[in-house]
Amino acid sequence: MAFEEQAQAIPFWRNTQVLRWTAQIVSGLAAVGLVTWLAIRMINAIQDRNVPVGFGFLSRSYGGPIGHHFLPYNPSTTAADTADSFLYSLLVAAGNTVVVSVIGVVLATILGTLIGVGRLSGNWLVSKLSLSYVEFFRNVPLLIQLFFWLTVILALPPVRSGIQIGDLFINNAGISFPWPSPTGVAPTVSWLVLAFLSLVAAYFVYRRRSRLEIRTGQPFYPIVSGCIAALILGATAWILVTAITNSVPFDITYPAPEGRFGRISGGATVPAALIVLLIGLVMYTAAFIAEIVRAGIQSVRKGQREAARSLGLNQFRSLRYVVFPQALRVIVPPLISQFLNLTKNSSLAVAIGYSDLLSVAKTMTQIGPALSIFILVMLIYLVISLAYSLIGNLYNRTTAIKGR
Amino acid sequence: MTVSQPNPAAEGALPPPRAERGVIGWLRFNLFKDWRSSLLTVVAAIAVVFALFYGLRWIFVQADWGVVAELGGRIAIGNYNTVDSCASQNCFWRPQAVLIGFVLILGMAWGVAGKGMTRNIAIGAATVISLFAFLPYSWEEMGMDVRLLLAANLPALGVGWLLARYTPLSTYLRISLLAVAWFVVSMVLLRGITGAPGLQPVSVNNWGGFMVNLILAVGGIALSLPIGILLALGRRSRSPVVRLRIPLGNLRKLKLSLPIVKWLCIAFIELFRGVPLLALLFLSQYLLPLALPEGFFLTRIPLLRTAIVITLFSAAYMAENVRGGIQGLHPGQAEAARALGLSGIRTIRLITLPQALRNVIPAIVGQFISLFKDTTLVYIIGVLEVVEIGRSFIQGNIQIWGGADKEYFIFVAAIFWIFTFGMSRISRRVEERLGSDSRARN
Known about the structure:
CATH class of the largest domain in chain B: Mainly Alpha
Low-confidence stretches of chain A: none
Shape of chain A: globular
Order of helices and strands of chain B: HHHHHHHHHEHEEHHHHHHHEHHHH
Order of helices and strands of chain A: HHHHHEEEEHHEEEEHHHHHH
Oligomer: heterodimer
CATH superfamily of the largest domain in chain B: MetI-like
Strand order of the largest sheet of chain A: 1-2-3-8
Structural class of chain A: alpha+beta
Strand content of chain A: 5-15%
Structural class of chain B: mainly alpha
Largest interface: A-B, 59 and 57 residues
Radius of gyration of chain A: 28 Å
Helix content of chain A: 55-70%
Number of strands of chain B: 4
Number of strands of chain A: 8
CATH topology of the largest domain in chain B: MetI-like fold
Number of domains of chain B: 3
Distance between the termini of chain B: 24 Å
Distance between the termini of chain A: 45 Å
């Protein structure tokens, strides 16, 4: 009883329960109040300027320029009514960001892994070169690097007097090279579907053979046989589709100068701004990835590799089956965060004039409601980030140590 | 070379073969171990020789560094001392006074730390700054007063050292407080006071050059760590639980908890981490002013909004680093502290945070470096920071300096590299001293 009385005797301003609840509720109310106040003021200010608020603009046609796009885009300068809508234009811009991000991630991972392994090389020169690469590119702001690469690209000869190596055209507008272009809906789509199925089949061949290899200890060449399976199946599908539809799925087109100004048409052209953006992003991010890969490999104790070698696995297999699976556990989480950084850094395209999500959105705000556009842009970036995190977490779950 | 040392345990044993010791042994072991290594070495060596030849030839022969010389002091302070921003007065002395103050504080830090890294940094920095006084400009371009104030940095360092030695200003805490106070004073000094003689106001919109990068970085670093720690603690906070008894059929117990603080912290962190800094900067530039009252100081000064955005952006990342550190601690640490009778706040302050922060020093310094690099992005809202001041100058004088942007970017890259590389070295040394080096423990 005495204890209870004592407990009741605590004044409410010293009761932790009361204090904590008050803190929670006060902070919640303060945050909600601040955000509401800002939002109401902002919407009022926008309405005072006679700019529409809300998301009704999304279905209207946009018609602004998007310099380079991977998805088909129709700005329709002649009749504004048929131009693509705001929503679709935003998606085209988001598509650019996604493609830049995926290509950048793949290239940066390859380069970063090479440099990270190079830092651990027994060769003194290679190791020191990798170290200098990392220390230089990691420590200089990406913006300066992008501006620098831009000056390098713009120093190339103009389109008229560009460099030509075989079917490769290099000039300050970009790089053009031969590229397969689809010939028609039926052959192209059906072959793409079949090609995808053969890739799936090849993956199963790879998985089965690597399991056999692990179970029996005999060489079954999983990677080689997987590639062969994919090639054979893909080629068979190609022949089949050609025979049935009377047309090859893809035709290779070659770039060639055209017209009075020697504009390159045909093939595929990677615009200069995209090249600069990719070079900058890849070289910058690779420096960070190299450090992650190095730390990951170093986190696997030497004894693991030595044990694998003494069990009779050769150099490659001991790396592939013993060291790498353990290193990946350490590598993957920070690697995913580097992928996210690369994606977010791709917004620096604004500085060098590439039409990524942010720069298109910025142009769009000149004729559309800025608040709504920015909310959408931030949502798209959040979705991309979430997608990467999701893939990373799923992968992490498969590689994490079981039972912890 | 341990290889060439005679082994005392094997008296009379022959020395290793000549090909395995000394320079030859090192070369054989590190560069020409087998044919693969030799091939790599040859290819890499050819690449290095070519890169060095063309690189050095470009730097010393072909490149025209005139643009750097032409910009001169503007690289450091932007258009701060031009007629537009500081009419009828010479304002160059204000940034220089700020610099001298910081060198003085650096000298005090040296006085407290004694020998070692702090001394090397202090002497190195002060010497380099003083040497700028002897730049080969003409007297018209760079007056005696400017040179004297630059050269004064070396004596200032000595004064700082003496102050730390012979006055009560001899603890890290006091020096840190002094540094914070000096930062505030220097903001006032740079901004100026209306009516005060010699302190004519200079609009913040005219601040520029490397000064702006440093101000943003120093302010951001000083504020983003505490904010990040608070966010991390908030994200890990549990909310109080209320147990309700509901008379539904049998008496049911219902646990009710409303972790509002935790949700707010998570929302803040994930929002700022999920969106590019540039998008946030645009937002703060074009939309935030609409929401703020007319004439409010945040509405008038874009640079201040930028500073807040950069700081909060960095704090969100910092929060995740700190959270990683806290989660890496064994829960027994906090439990033991509570069992010893420490209050919740004291447990965090004395037990959890010191260990958690020590374990994530590399990540925290990495975030500082990244914040420093991100300060270049404020050019997007028209601040003439160090990259943009040169870029806009070259664009404006394209007839004269048309192709000189390469040189300027390389020069600025070198400046940034010195600072960021230095920061990562310092972090490495601090880590070694605190014994939290993970590689050393393995």
